[in-house]
Amino acid sequence: MFLLLFSFLAGSGSLVLTVLFLVASQIALCVLWGFLHRQNLNGKAAAAKKPPAGGAFKHCPWCAAELKLGPVEGKKERLHCSCGYINWNNPIPVAVAVIPRSDGSIVLVQRGIAPAIGSWALPGGFVDAFESPEVAAKREAKEETGLDVTIVRLLKVVMTPGRNNMLMFYLAAPCDGVIVPGPESKDAKPYFVDQLPEMPFSTHREIIAECVQLGVLKNSAAS
Ligand SMILES: [Zn+2]
Tell me: the pLDDT tens digits for 112-128? Predict the structure, then answer.
């Protein structure tokens, strides 16, 4: 088509029309190339956002080479590198505090950070490097509620459904101190178990129900 038009215009003897045609066709080609290149870049960006199978990393944190997915030490497939690095993808520990008041209510925080911003949950967070989970539960309780709690015992260890987080629930001794929401909380206050706000984390609801069974938490009428 291009050659036909070109030979026709060149044959017609009109130099102006031939030059105009050549310029217009060059512009059209540039626009088309730009469009296709952009589509390609968008595709690459979308692929880069998706984490590779077996873990959230694409490159080796030791040598920056691209990680490979395959069986490691006869175990399941793991991302690994020829330099010796293996991404074991172990669960991430999270310490959570169950803080009762002496009247049988429980201290909850309204989350100010993702996930589930604005919803109510038990105070808790990721365990710091080299920190014991029990110390983490005490620290998170202080940071999110302002309360200095004494940990009584470990209640339960469960995995967060659909996530690689290992939740460790610790029971604190009844604490009636002044509650002050921390920087990561919109609010913090005690609730009786028959007046709980909506709580999206099923594991938190389940541990509260178990604490009712244990007699640690009570209904408003029972206080
Ligand atoms: Zn490496």
Answer: 888 889 999 999 999 99
**Whole-angstrom distance, CA of residue 171 vs CA of residue 213:** 14
CA of 105 to the centre of ligand 1 (A): 51
Contact partners, residue 139, CB within 8 Å, separation at least 6: 128, 131
**Tens digits of per-residue pLDDT, 40-80?**
444 444 444 544 445 678 999 999 999 999 999 887 889 99
How many Å lie between the centroid of ligand 1 and the Cα of residue 66?
Answer: 8
Query: In angstroms, what is the span from residue 67 Cα to ligand 1's centroid?
Result: 7
Residues 13, 122 share a domain = no
Q: Alpha helix (H) ranges present in the chain?
A: 2-12, 15-49, 133-145, 202-214
Residues 165 and 137 in one domain: yes
Query: DSSP for 186-204?
Result: EEEEEE-GGG------HHH
Q: Are 206 and 110 in a shared domain?
A: yes
- Using the mean position of ligand 1's atoms as its centre, give its distance from the Cα of residue 162 in Å: 29
On whether both 37 and 132 belong to a single domain, the answer is no
Whether residues 76 and 96 share a domain: the answer is no
Q: Are residues 62 and 44 part of one domain?
A: no
Q: Which residues contact 178 (CB under 8 A, 6 or more apart)?
A: 146
CA of 77 to the centre of ligand 1 (A): 17
Residue 33: domain span: 2-49
Q: Taking the model in full, what pTM does it have?
A: 0.73
